[in-house]
Amino acid sequence: MDNNKFYITTPIYYPSDKLHIGHAYTTTVADSLARWHKFLGKEVRFLTGSDEHGQKIQRIAKERGVTPQEYVDRIVASFKDLWQRLNIEYDDFVRTTEARHQRAVQEVFQRIYDKGDIYKSKYKGWYCTPCETFWVESKLVDGNCPDCGRSVELVEEESYFFKLSKYQDRLLKHIKENPEFIQPESRRNEMVNFIKDGLEDLCVSRTTFDWGVPVPIDDKHVIYVWFDALTNYLTGIGFPDNQELFSKWWPAELHLVGKEIMRFHTIIWPIILLALDLPLPKTVFGHGWLLFDNDKMSKSKGNVVDPIALIDEFGVDPIRYFLLREISFGQDGNFNRTALIERTNADLANDLGNLLNRSLSMLNRYFDGVIPAPKQLEEIDQALVKAANDTVTRMTALIEQLKINEALAVLWQLIGRGNKYIDETAPWALAKDPEKQDRLATVMYCIFELQRITALLLKSFIPETSTKIWQQLGLSEDLDKLLVDAAEWGGLKPGTATQKGDPIFPRIDVKAKQGDTPKPEQAQAEPPAETQGDNLVDISDFAKLELVIARVISAEKHPNADRLLKLKVDIGDSERQIVAGIAKHYHPSELIGKNIVIVANLKPAKLRGEVSEGMLLAASSPDGKLELVTVSEQIAPGSRVK
Ligand code: MSP
Questions:
Q1: 265 Cα nearest atom in ligand 1
Q2: Residue 342 exposure: Cα atoms within 13 Å on the Cβ side
Q3: What pLDDT score does 580 carry?
Q4: Is the pLDDT of residue 405 over 70?
Q5: How far apart (Å, rounded) are the C-alpha atoms in residues 215 and 105?
Q6: Going from the N-terminus, what domains does the chain have, and what CATH number goes with each?
């Protein structure tokens, strides 16, 4: 097989309704994989489309009083809008109502008919219209469709049949000899058992409606919608007329589908290909379902999540990142707003966004925003270089195994390491010492080189963010064109003028978005006291408060409370422990090195079992975002605020 090409497909979705976040999930994963393989230097073809024929679509159009074509045209336009909003870069979009597709489907049917593998007979059995699936009575569950649980209809008509049974043993042999063909493994076992139960010949034409591709030899019949739909994978690469394109791309490296349509892709589709004497795709991967609040999404439950509304509200990359990072690929996963917001705040605003923001602020302060040349690398720098180079290798291996969420977790370890590196090297301390200018230059170079590499490694997953980081780093190479070798340490040119911009991910205010987030425990978020009449104090009252500057030495999550952080602060002559209700607003790593203001003579109190020896000051914006009162690093810890 040509290792240097990657042909990937998504299912072609039914335009029976607008697409939801579940469809966006498959397509976002496929898009990221396509981009990643391009980044690896491969030639990539990424195909998607719409499955527009069949009884279901014909019925819906009739209910709405429009022709099927009018109906699908409108919905398919909304598919394309969604893909554009999600930054999906497909190479071709097959609509099954296109002439080129009709040509391909009829050719496939004709070739198999000519071979003697399609014959005419009578069908009597059950049909599930929402799934467009035939069922024999013995497979029904309580008389309903075993897949979706909905009612089935009795169908009795003259049909053409495809000899699935003839190919059963060849298919089993292929599955056995090619363990990568059906993934993940649990689904392979399921499919093998299904085949071993015995395959019935498949009904591949219908006569009771006409919204489909006519059978070439008998135009009373239209071709069964799944036979029609699966052929899209050939249409999209020029079958049957463009032999050059077709032989360049077939077989596909990866058909990505949801687990509920694995049977079609690992039994019917390969048997069509065997009958055509074409090679089988390398892998069919059946991923799990995206649930909403742990429940299956469905229109009747009213819990279908509209991706466009989410993009409007949160922007595209938080959605892409959530889908790729939160769900263990292959297994069912859960979507809900709280999880989306928390993921965005923790990973994108705090870890990634804050790393960029804080390092650009420092670079502006210490080097006028221009990347300095590194000097001697110390052990801690070398460890960072190794971590960055290892990340590329580890991510590549994980993505090869389609462990996308794990690959992103590895990248976020590197980002976390970048934040930690800043805390440990403390550039603000180096900046104070003129003799440590070289060291400061090296540290700043390392911090920015790490972020250049991060932007490259991110571009397949959250391309918009990656571009924003690239711009703020002031890099001039065309990010789109750079390949994985550019992610090797050392590519950042000293002298690059960075361009600090707005934070790439402002924190999402959990309270405003959900209305259910409790307030921080201490009084930091209280509104200012009234400043009239009885509330006026004189200067001696104010003097009773010991407000001092405290430098945060360490910060960690409170062991027993999600909303609290435990800080160690330096107040000049001693250290204090302060427990504060700011965990939803600050990541511990953001706080280290900050000069904050505390009330030092507040009576100590125990908060969830941890002593707090003081209270920090903060203010909150009208939308609930909390910000600590800070002063610059020039002010020594212990200084009194007067
Ligand atoms: N038209 C057929 C596919 C033909 S492919 C030759 C079809 N269409 S569909 O509109 O029902 O899309 C099903 C696919 O959408 C799933 O296999 C999966 O890729 C995606 N998903 C739809 N809902 C989903 C979830 N709730 N979770 C994850 N994926 C989901 O079947």
A1: 6
A2: 11
A3: 92
A4: yes
A5: 9
A6: 1-97+288-335 (3.40.50.620), 338-379+411-487 (1.10.730.10), 539-641 (2.40.50.140)
